[in-house]
């Protein structure tokens, strides 16, 4: 590549905007168009100096003059930066997946087979529907101004604070424990985190559900759609609680009931652990 030409990715980096936003802008202004194997230049794009390059690793791709960094249209992007779910979650220590679920709970977007679909209420917040150029999956970017939305800030703070608070000094805690954002009360912050993960993932669940036996055995969570029981195995459980946990495990095995065991090391990586566990039983989630 000549010194005065840069890839679209490099141009986005120079402009300090998400590469997806730049691709979307170039498409909207008819500089490029989507084709089966990627992107193709339009006459407008060629007029602005766009050219093709070939790479053994990446195949054909488009390069642009470095001087386009000063193009009025592209400079305007710097004043209208768009944020991904991951970028919105960064100040709160939340993953992009967690933020996307919060946005879905607010009714700003919804998950379908092709990714995240922007809804009218999300469009009112400035959301922009885009498509991943490699996977063809849909996603949404959000204006920086959305970070000032009080409702969104409160929801993100609620999710971020789950499991990281001192229960004795917790505004979300009642006399009997902590409350998750779906209204369920829990004795432990770990259970609160699990509950909020299920809720934001769109998984119908009950808490403290009795097992279908004569003994008084209660699972931490129950998914009625797929008949799945979920239990958290605490390392500091009392002898009585540990005995009940072990008895529940015996009942699950004896009756062939679907069950999931979660341990303390799983709580901080629920986005990785829960999908694997739920998929074993065909549980759908967002």
Please outline what is shown here:
This protein has 286 residues and is of the alpha+beta class.
How would you describe this protein?
The protein contains twelve helices and 17 strands. About 4% of the residues have low confidence. α1 packs across α2. With 286 residues, the protein is of the alpha+beta class. It is elongated. 28% of the residues are buried.
Report the sheet-strand fraction.
15-25%
Largest sheet: 4 strands, mixed
Average of pLDDT: 86
> Tally of extended strands?
17
- Run of helices and strands: EHHEEHEEHEHHEEHEEHEEEHEEEHEHH
In spatial order, strands of the major sheet run 14-15-16-17
Instruction: Describe the global form.
Output: elongated
Q: Given the structure, what is the number of helices?
A: 12
Write the layout of secondary structure elements.
Elements: E1 5-7, H1 8-15, H2 19-28, E2 32-35, E3 38-41, H3 43-47, E4 51-55, E5 59-65, H4 72-78, E6 82-83, H5 85-89, H6 96-105, E7 109-112, E8 115-118, H7 120-124, E9 128-131, E10 138-143, H8 150-161, E11 173-174, E12 177-179, E13 185-186, H9 189-200, E14 206-210, E15 218-223, E16 228-232, H10 239-255, E17 258-262, H11 264-267, H12 270-279
Parallel strand pairs: 16-17
Antiparallel strand pairs: 1-5, 2-3, 4-5, 6-10, 7-8, 9-10, 11-12, 12-13, 14-15, 15-16
Helix pairs in contact: 1-2, 6-8
């Amino acid at each position: 590549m000549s010194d005065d030409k840069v890839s679209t990715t490099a141009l986005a980096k120079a402009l300090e905007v998400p590469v997806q936003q730049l691709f979307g802008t170039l498409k909207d202004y008819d500089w490029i168009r989507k084709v089966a194997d990627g992107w193709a230049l339009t006459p407008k794009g060629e007029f602005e100096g766009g050219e093709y390059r070939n790479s053994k690793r990446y195949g054909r791709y488009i390069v642009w003059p470095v001087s386009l960094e000063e193009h009025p249209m592209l400079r305007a992007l710097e004043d209208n930066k768009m944020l991904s779910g991951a970028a919105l979650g960064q100040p709160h220590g939340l993953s992009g997946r967690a933020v996307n679920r919060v946005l879905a709970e607010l009714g700003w977007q919804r998950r379908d087979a092709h990714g995240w679909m922007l809804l009218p209420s999300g469009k009112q917040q400035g959301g922009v529907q885009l498509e991943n150029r490699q996977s063809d999956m849909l996603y949404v970017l959000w204006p920086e101004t959305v970070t000032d939305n009080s409702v969104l800030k409160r929801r993100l703070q609620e999710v971020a604070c789950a499991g990281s608070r001192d229960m004795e000094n917790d505004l979300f805690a009642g006399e009997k424990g902590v409350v998750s954002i779906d209204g369920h009360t829990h004795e432990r912050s770990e259970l609160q985190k699990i509950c909020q993960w299920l809720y934001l993932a769109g998984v119908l669940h009950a808490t403290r559900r009795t097992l279908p036996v004569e003994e008084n055995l209660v699972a931490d969570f129950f998914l009625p759609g797929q008949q799945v029981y979920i239990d958290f195995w605490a390392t500091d459980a009392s002898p009585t609680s540990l005995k009940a946990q072990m008895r529940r495990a015996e009942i699950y095995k004896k009756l062939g009931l679907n069950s999931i065991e979660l341990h303390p090391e799983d709580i901080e990586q629920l986005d990785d652990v829960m999908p694997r566990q739920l998929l074993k039983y065909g549980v759908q989630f967002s």
